[in-house]
Automatic annotation (TrEMBL):
This is C2H2-type domain-containing protein. Residues 19-46, 47-74, 75-102, 103-130, 131-158, 167-194, 195-222, 223-250, 251-278, 279-306, 307-334, 335-362, 363-390, 419-446, 447-474, 475-502, 503-530, 531-553 form the C2H2-type domain. PROSITE patterns: ZINC_FINGER_C2H2_1, ZINC_FINGER_C2H2_2. InterPro entries: Znf_C2H2-type, Znf_C2H2_sf, Znf_C2H2_type. Its main location: nucleus. One of its GO terms (cellular component) is nucleus. It holds the Pfam family zf-C2H2_6. One of its GO terms (biological process) is negative regulation of transcription by RNA polymerase II.
Length: 553
């Protein structure tokens, strides 16, 4: 009891002298270290390091600490050879190889290798910031950030060596404030990617990148916008999104004064002015401004379509193309214009539409300065100056902006049908036509009427069917004013006025406007009576005669 009273008196005296020991005058960086030091004067047995003057209550802790100065690391990992000062650090390290993450957050399900990491993570959910700076009042969730912050006030620069030199990369000369950041940077040169996804095997240089990647598999989007409810996997994407609500566009092009939310967007935009296209295809020599567009282009040569629709089996080069395509089946039009409420299936279509409201025509002709809403319109215009007909059909004067469109057009003249159905052998000019045809064999009917539930193979068939519910008859005869839902019916009707009867009977020479009428007529010659009474077995040429007969029964 007497000993404790002495310690308390010494501590109180120390506090009055701003973390200075009143017994020996020694100063300390914090009150906790001073309190521990006071126990020396009370006669308590303590262990002080003669290298850094750190004090320990327990001898085993002191012995472990001394290994820092001796650089002794007696515990070796049998997987990768890395050495550790104590067995506990080795045990923690082994979790990297085993993949063990025994500590799970009960709020969001995120897993951790170490209990301490879980405890620190929980501060995100509780909002707790237990480490407060007594100089400026700023608070921190973890002690590491707090310690780093405190060096601002002390003027200490821990990332500097005693010689004042920073940590420089021996490969490229880039300098870093902290050695562990240099170590991470070195992975760029060595190609080392030590963090592996246990779901898909993808490897990453940094643990943070793996953690973010895991959100793809879990479907987790932890960063939610409180303005519109939209969620994001990456904090960077969330931060960029928030600028949409604030209207902040801090990156401005000094050439045309156009502003951007992200610096990367400005850098991409600058290539328009510089004409820079750093990504060149070795197959065809075509160059691109963006790496993402270049990668997609490469798949046109390899014919690699890695994204497949589970509704109709159509495949795509890019994930966003598949995402846009899926709205065909769901009828979803998620992109809505805030000015006129018009909705679109694809974000690109909305962006083009918005330019019409704003009047922004950001595609500029370098020859005459004329501006256009789309790159397609600009390319078409530029042929006026060049006189070029680079994608001209060899069979007609028709020209095309893109070589792919020319290639498709040419199959009309050559009658080439390179796409074959493996079920029935029927051939098609376009792959899209084959996809549509395959629905006959698979029975897939992805388009559903939301009024009556009837299903259709093709979007066009659904659109035509919807006119039954809306009463719309868009095809009007200018001769007699009669209207039709279907263009085919309208075309047949017009033959009444023109007198055209293209379908002739080869037995008697009689002609008909519609092919169906000819088929019915042919049953006179064949003797076929396709409509049979199921009561008495009598047959009829026409359905209406069967109906009349049924009244007898």
């Amino acid at each position: 009891m007497e000993e404790n009273k002495v310690i308390e008196e010494l501590m109180e005296a120390g506090k009055k002298h701003h973390d200075t020991c009143p017994q020996c005058g020694k100063s300390f960086s914090c009150e906790q270290t001073l309190n521990l030091h006071m126990k020396f004067h009370s006669g308590m047995e303590l262990y002080e390091c003669d290298q850094c003057e750190k004090i320990f209550k327990l001898k085993e802790n002191f012995n472990e600490h001394m290994k820092i100065h001796t650089e002794e690391k007696p515990h070796t990992c049998d997987q990768c050879g890395k050495k550790f000062r104590n067995k506990g650090n080795l045990s923690d390290h082994m979790k990297i190889h085993t993949g063990a993450m025994p500590y799970s957050c009960d709020q969001c399900g995120r897993k951790f290798r170490h209990k301490g990491n879980l405890n620190t993570h929980m501060n995100i959910h509780t909002g707790k910031k237990p480490f407060a700076c007594d100089q400026c009042g700023k608070s921190f969730r973890n002690k590491g950030n707090y310690n780093y912050h405190m060096k601002i006030h002390t003027g200490e620069k821990p990332w500097r060596k005693t010689t004042g030199e920073s940590h420089a990369c021996s490969q490229c000369g880039k300098k870093f404030k902290q050695k562990h950041i240099l170590n991470q940077h070195m992975r760029i040169h060595t190609g080392e990617k030590p963090h592996t996804c246990d779901q898909c095997g993808r490897k990453f240089r940094y643990k943070g990148n793996l953690n973010t990647h895991m959100n793809i598999h879990t479907g987790k989007k932890p960063f939610a916008c409180d303005q519109c409810g939209k969620s994001f996997r990456h904090k960077g994407n969330y931060n960029d999104h928030m600028k949409i609500h604030t209207g902040e566009k801090q990156y401005t092009c000094e050439q045309c004064e156009k502003s951007f939310i992200q610096k990367g967007q400005l850098n991409e935009h600058m290539k328009i002015h510089t004409g820079e296209k750093p990504f060149t295809c070795e197959q065809c020599g075509k160059s691109f401004r963006k790496s993402s567009v270049f990668k997609v282009h490469l798949r046109t040569h390899s014919r690699e379509r890695i994204y497949s629709c589970d509704q109709c089996s159509k495949t795509f080069f890019r994930a966003d193309f598949l995402k846009d395509h899926l709205t065909v089946h769901t009828q979803e039009r998620p992109y809505v214009c805030s000015l006129c409420a018009k909705s679109f299936r694809q974000m690109g279509n909305l962006k083009t539409h918005l330019k019409r409201h704003s009047g922004v025509k950001d595609h500029i002709c370098s020859e005459c300065g004329k501006t256009f809403f789309t790159v397609y319109a600009l390319k078409k215009h530029q042929t006026v100056h060049t006189g070029e007909k680079s994608n001209q059909s060899s069979h007609s004067d028709k020209t095309f902006t893109w070589p792919e469109y020319l290639k498709i057009h040419e199959t009309i003249h050559t009658e080439e049908k390179p796409h074959t159905c493996d079920q029935c052998g029927k051939t098609f000019r376009l792959k899209g036509f084959l996809y549509e045809h395959m629905k006959i064999h698979t029975g897939v009917m992805p388009y559903t009427c939301d009024q009556c539930g009837r299903k259709f193979r093709h979007k066009g068939s659904l659109n035509t069917h919807m006119r039954i519910h809306t009463g719309e008859k868009p095809f009007a005869c200018d001769q007699c004013g009669k209207s039709f839902r279907h263009k085919g019916n309208y075309n047949d009707h017009m033959k009444i006025h023109s007198g055209e009867k293209p379908h002739s009977c080869d037995q008697c020479g009689r002609s008909f406007i519609q092919k169906e009428h000819l088929k019915k007529h042919m049953s006179i010659h064949t003797g076929e009576k396709p409509f049979t009474c199921d009561h008495c077995g009598k047959g009829f040429l026409k359905k209406e005669r069967l109906k009349k007969h049924m009244k007898i029964h």
